[in-house]
Specification:
The structure is a homodimer of 492-residue chains.
Chain A (H helix, E strand, L loop, with lengths): L14 H14 L8 E2 L2 H8 L3 H13 L3 E4 L3 E4 L12 H9 L2 H6 L17 E2 L12 H13 L2 H6 L8 H15 L8 E4 L1 H13 L5 E6 L1 E2 H9 L3 E8 L2 E2 L11 E4 L13 H14 L2 E5 L24 E6 L11 E4 L5 H12 L4 H12 L2 H27 L5 E3 L6 E5 L7 H10 L2 E2 L8 E2 L9 E5 L5 H20 L1
Parallel strand pairs in A: 4-16, 6-8, 6-10, 10-11, 11-12
Antiparallel strand pairs in A: 1-3, 2-3, 5-13, 7-17, 8-9, 12-13, 14-15, 15-18
């Protein structure tokens, strides 16, 4: 008596596991029924030319799990305990059941938001927005700080949970940084470290949003925010944006709502929310029992003036929730951001953070805390500001030369992108983007860049151009290629 | 004309920032009204004994933000634009408004779940459950792999988003590990890397749970699961547990529900779900359109037999969602775990993961992938199994000697903890835990360990004892101390 098992002797799976799996699968699919007799381990070992111990290990495993049993003097059999069980549903029946599953219909509402992913093939010169230049990553300092942290209490820190609201040294460093660069003076215990600003958005969503929540976002605005809030059941209400940022006077007087805004560098237009509107916005929130989410995603990178103080810095009414990110200055691969909360929200937000992930990984937080405390973050900010300003200057010149002086650019005072509006004679922006893609240049219309807006807002005339990750000569070469496409587009 | 500013010359905040902040705060609190004249930068510099450039930087900042304006020939004044604004609410009014805030009442429902935190002071010998021994952390290998990863494409990986479902090499390594150790043969694309098993639970909660969802958990069971699911609106329905694990026959025939179970090593009793019940559970889920969440939190650590195959390994109906964690074998400080999903749930779960955090940090994932691929994880598992088995043996002996042979222990076949039931003559478990705490030994009743159960299930006779983080001699000394407390407790 033997079993015909096609053992793979050079694979990753051990022989005993292959035997285990073979027998188990045949019991589960009904090929070996209850009471079916198996070969002895000696017979199996001989027939398969394996060590007897290997066969015994496989049988031990199957016995422990209740698939087989050995009756003294009689042999080894598929277990009686399986007798009374229902035969598993046929694959076809299972498919029908899945199609009718109420729970599966429920999950179908989730869709992955737009974002850059390395699984997507990108062209050689890519103007995707919000991406820092990897070539400016502070690698040697980061490596030194990593080694220092690994030399000191690493085992204890890897082994245990940390502070659920984040590494305290990092929160202290963030608080100092906010005071210095963003005019925002807060205590470290008002700060929660998050997995990028994205987790911060989710904490806000979980705190406030349910099926009866109206959530106001800038129009045009950052689509991923709308996706997150819709996933918690919110109804999204767009609020217009003009040259002074969010039109605060368009917000409703009916209360208990939330508004998301990017006051320092509106996404995607680059508008700066005026001081008059900042105060009006906070007054509105206080008057109507609303909260404001200030997403300060790239305001630390500013070229021609000192950075504007954050909206949260003038909030005396505890109405502003501030979202910060390290994705634009350091990089998205460290997945670190933070929330700054009014005192009245701190404990509930820490609870939501704890429920969600029990805090952040230790090592990256510890390194970033040292990076900030030792002054490297400030130095790195200066370095990237200088580099990105030069790139912006090259881009503006190249656009004026290559696409002509009628191209309108906004948002060039800072950040990692500008918004370009093309004059009608250059043809549709989407057609230009398609041609450019073929020529090895990634250009993106607002829609392609994940901007949410009402239909035809930009009239297919706009491009969101991130330039920070491209060096000056690369920008020049890329825009030359776009200019070469242009004749075709404008003509066609 | 001057301003009396008490400048801190040896602090962290620059002089211009102190000036900026002083003036800004006085404008915002109404001390300096619209039209108020400020000293010139020359006067200010002289009176404060600072460089004129410092004063000019502060004024530039205030001007850019719209607080002040310079009128040629007349001087510098607080801006007219502030004239028409509402005076910010008094602190007292703001407090009243906050008390009446509908949104703030809404957030008050969130409470932080029980878990070990380094902010809590722990006694010298601590039997908190689920904690690995930091002294066994594979520090030198981890350090080498860290350096290797930092030497290779680190800048690019830190700068950009990774795969939202997790590092693919890590998912491949997890798939191989699951086949080898858990009898669970899955494709890497069914795996999503999460911030600990906790984030996996949240993804399940977001996929399925709303206000009309009934969520079944084991009673006694892991309280944090109930907290997470309640935070998404679920009604928690406890299901009894006996010596064969979850009592599957107690699950209702009305459908579309979810059940959470720990089949390999029930938390906290240590019961193993029998094969008959495993098949019955899957049949129940298929019959009633339900899903099963299998939390396999510590089953890789097993002493006296090969590890049981995972419940998910016998699921032919795509009804089991498998939760894995590296917190128990490597440590909670890396915040890595994973979900293994039926094919029908993969895309929705990746969408929820992306909405939540856009993926995990790069470095820890890359190191762990190498750690697994190079065989270190298997070796580490063998090492900790050997160490923890010896500790368990010492604990069982020490308990029998120190507390007497009537102490009943369950769950000792594996994992990082046992459940002890004290005989009545030893007095209440909570009293013993309190005395032990004073004697420097952390003992925890199920309630203190975050177990959720119906009142009086354990009759104040049980302790959840995690022993993995204590060495053999420490366990002996700790139990001696407990034994010394015992006379007092039993007598009192």
């Amino acid at each position: 008596m033997s079993l015909l098992i096609d053992l793979q002797r050079d694979g990753d799976v051990t022989l005993q596991e292959q035997i285990y799996r073979f027998i188990r699968d045949r019991i589960l699919d009904g090929s070996y029924r209850n009471g079916f007799q198996l070969p002895s381990t000696r017979e199996l070992a001989q027939s398969l030319k394996i060590a007897r111990n290997t066969a015994m290990l496989a049988y031990d495993w199957l016995t422990t799990e209740g698939y087989i049993e050995t009756r003294r003097g009689a042999g080894t059999f598929v277990c009686e305990t399986l007798t009374d069980m229902e035969v598993p549903a046929e694959p076809r029946q299972a498919a029908v059941r899945r199609r009718n599953s109420a729970l599966l219909r429920k999950v179908a509402r989730y869709e992955t938001p737009v974002l850059i992913s390395r699984t997507t093939k990108r062209p050689r010169f890519d103007f995707w927005y919000g991406k820092p230049d990897a070539r400016l990553f502070p690698g040697s300092v980061w490596r030194r700080l990593t080694l220092e942290n690994l030399s000191h209490a690493a085992a204890v820190n890897f082994s245990d949970y940390g502070d659920q609201a984040g590494n305290f040294a990092l929160r202290q460093a963030i608080a100092e940084h906010l005071g210095r660069v963003r005019g925002l003076f807060v205590r470290p215990d008002q700060i929660i470290v998050t997995a990028g600003a994205q987790e911060g958005l989710n904490i806000v969503g979980r705190l406030f949003v349910s099926a009866d929540t109206t959530f106001h976002i800038e129009d045009p605005g950052y689509g991923a925010v709308a996706s997150v809030m819709e996933s918690y059941g919110a109804e999204i209400a767009p609020v217009p944006v003009d040259g002074d940022g969010l039109c605060v006077e368009c917000l409703p007087e009916s209360g208990q709502t939330l508004v998301y805004t990017t006051p320092s560098h509106q996404f995607p237009t680059g508008a700066v929310l005026s001081l008059a509107r900042r105060q009006a916005l906070i007054d509105w929130a206080e008057r109507t029992d609303a909260f404001i989410i200030e997403d300060d995603y790239d305001s630390e990178i500013v070229f021609d003036r000192p950075p504007l103080a954050a909206l949260a810095s003038i909030d005396r009414c505890e109405r502003v929730i501030y979202l910060g990110s390290f994705s634009k200055v350091i990089g998205a691969g460290i997945r670190l951001g933070y929330l700054v909360l009014p005192a009245s929200l701190v404990s509930a937000a820490i609870a939501v953070k704890s429920l969600g992930s029990y805090g952040n990984p230790w090592l990256d937080q510890a390194i970033l805390a040292d990076f900030m405390r030792e002054g490297h973050f400030q130095a790195h900010l200066r370095r990237v500001r200088t580099a990105y300003r030069a790139r912006r200057d090259v881009l503006l010149r190249a656009l004026a030369v290559g696409l002509g002086p009628e191209v309108e650019v906004s948002g060039q005072e800072g950040g990692l992108h500008v918004l370009c509006r093309l004059p009608p004679h250059l043809g549709p922006a989407s057609a230009l983007a398609a041609k450019a893609w073929e020529a090895g240049v990634g250009l993106y219309t607002p829609e392609q860049a994940g901007v949410r807006t009402h239909a035809a807002h930009f009239g297919d005339r706009a491009l969101v151009m991130g330039y920070a990750a491209l060096q000056e000569d690369e920008i020049e070469r890329a825009i030359s290629r776009v200019a070469a496409c242009l004749d075709g587009t404008a003509a066609g």
